[in-house]
C-alpha cells in the first residue's frame, strides 16, 4: 500500500517529496516480448514513471466482447513496469486521441445513427459504463493504494479541445471514484483559455500539453490554478507523419532546451513520446483540419527510442539533462543488431475477385451500407451493382466515400476516388447490355481528433450514375466485408504470365530465418496495400511515403520457413520484396 498526493506545489509519494519525470509508451504499439526491453531503457534514461493510454477499441473490439490478452494485456504491462521500479500513470479515458484509430473509441459506436460522442448523451454513457464495469475491476489491484504501481488516472483527454459538457466529465469522475479508483485524478488540456475552461474540473488536478514555450503555458495555467503542482502531461518532443508528408524530425538541442526550462520551473513532465512504436494492422488514425489526412503505419514520432527500440541521439541528450535533476540508474540494455534476410520472390498469387468467397460471405441491400452498420470495424469493403446501358461518358459519382475507392466496370479498373482530393467521380462507357459496377473502399483510419470525430466508413451516402448535372442513385447492392483478419482460406496459385493491370491481388512468398531478429520490409516497386508476416498484419504501405519500410519485430518470425503475404491494390512491376536491416522513414 502506498499513497501519491499533492502537497503544496508538488507531489509526495508515501510522504516523501517526488517530482514525476515520465515517458509515454503504449503497450498496444509494442509486441509484448519487447515490453521489458523498452521499460528498462526508459528507466535507464532517468525516468521514474511510465505513462500509457488504455485503448477502448482494442479491449472491446465487438460490443460486449472483451480482450485482455497478448498485446492487449495492459495488466501485465503495468505489473512489469512496477517490478522494474517504475511508477505508472494510466489514461483510461474512453477517448485517447494518440493518432490511434478513432481516438480509441470502438467503431461499433457508429452503428447507431443517432450516436453522440464525448458528451452526456445517454446512449454513449451507457456504452462507457459497460466498458468501465469490465475495465475498472482489472485496474483496482494495480493502484498504488492496493500495492500496485499506478499513481494517477486521467478523467478525459484534451476534452477542452472538443467540448464543454461538465456533466460528462463529472460522470466519468464519478465512475472512476465509485469503481474504487482511489488515486489522484487529473485532466490534460492545451493552454488556450477555452481549452482550460472546457476541460478541467474543480478539485481535480489540471495538467497541460505543449511542445514549446513552457513559461507562457504555465503562466496561463496559474490564471486558473494559482496553487498546486505544475505538470506538462504531454511534452511533444517529436511529431507524427501523414501519408504524403515529409518525415517529421525535431532536433535534440531544441528538445533539451525546453525540458531544462520545464524542470527548472520545478514542474513535473511526461514525454510524449518516449517510445512511439507501430500502428500495426489497421489501427492508425487520421486528422481532418483542412482536409482528411491518414497517419502512416510507423509511430516512430522521432522519439527518444526509435520505432524498433534503438536509443537515439535525443535519448542520450535527454539522459544528460535528467541527470542534472535526478540520480541516473544503470546504462540501458544493449539492442540486438537487426538482420537482413534478403530478397523474397512473391511467386504465388490470387486475385481479390477470385478470393471473395474465401474471405467472407455477401450481403444484399437496397442501398450501400457503411462498414459499421454491417458490423465491420477495419479493412476494406466491396460494393457491387448493375448499371444499365447504353450510357456513353457515364459519370459514376461516389457521394461521401470514406476513404479511398478503386472503381471497376466488369472487372476492369476505371479509376480511383480519394476523399481528400476534391474529386468524387470517374467516367465509364456503359455498353448497351449494361455492366457490373464494382467499388473497393479502403478505410484509411477513422479521424482521431477534432470536430469531425464522427467518421463512419465505406460509402456513407450513395452512388449516382449519369451525365453531368443529371444523375440517378443506383440501388440494389451486393456487399462483401473484407477486414482481412483471416487469410488462411486463400488459395494461391503459381504466378505466371500477364496479370490484368490494376487488379487487386494477394501475393505470397516464403523466406528462411535462422534466428528471430528484427528486420524491415521494403516494398520498392509496389504501390499500395497491406503486408502480413506469418499471418500478422504489419500495417499499410504506400509508395507516396514518407514511410518506405515496415518494421518487422523479431518475435513475429520463426526459425525456419516464414510466410510473407502482400495485398497489393494496383499491381507491381516486380513481384519481389526485400527484408533489410535498416529502416527508411523519409
Automatic annotation (TrEMBL):
Catalytic residues (UniProt): 158 (proton donor), 234 (nucleophile)
Lineage top rank: taxon: Bacteria
A GO term, aspect molecular function: beta-galactosidase activity
Domain Glycoside hydrolase 35 catalytic: 11-324
Residue ranges occupied by any Beta-galactosidase galactose-binding domain in the UniProt entry: 504-562
Swiss-Prot/TrEMBL keywords: Glycosidase, Hydrolase
Pfam families: BetaGal_ABD_1, BetaGal_gal-bd, Glyco_hydro_35
SUPFAM superfamilies: (Trans)glycosidases (SSF51445), Galactose-binding domain-like (SSF49785)
InterPro entries, A to Z: B-gal_1-like (IPR026283), BetaGal1-like_ABD1 (IPR048912), BetaGal_gal-bd (IPR048913), Galactose-bd-like_sf (IPR008979), GH (IPR017853), Gly_Hdrlase_35_cat (IPR031330), Glyco_hydro_35_CS (IPR019801), Glycoside_Hdrlase_35 (IPR001944)
PROSITE patterns listed in its UniProt record: GLYCOSYL_HYDROL_F35
Enzyme class per UniProt: hydrolase
GO BP term, pick one: carbohydrate metabolic process
EC number: 3.2.1.23
Domain Beta-galactosidase 1-like first all-beta: 368-480
UniProt record similarity statement: Belongs to the glycosyl hydrolase 35 family.
Protein name from the UniProt record: Beta-galactosidase
Organism: Cohnella rhizosphaerae
Taxonomic path: Bacteria, Bacillati, Bacillota, Bacilli, Bacillales
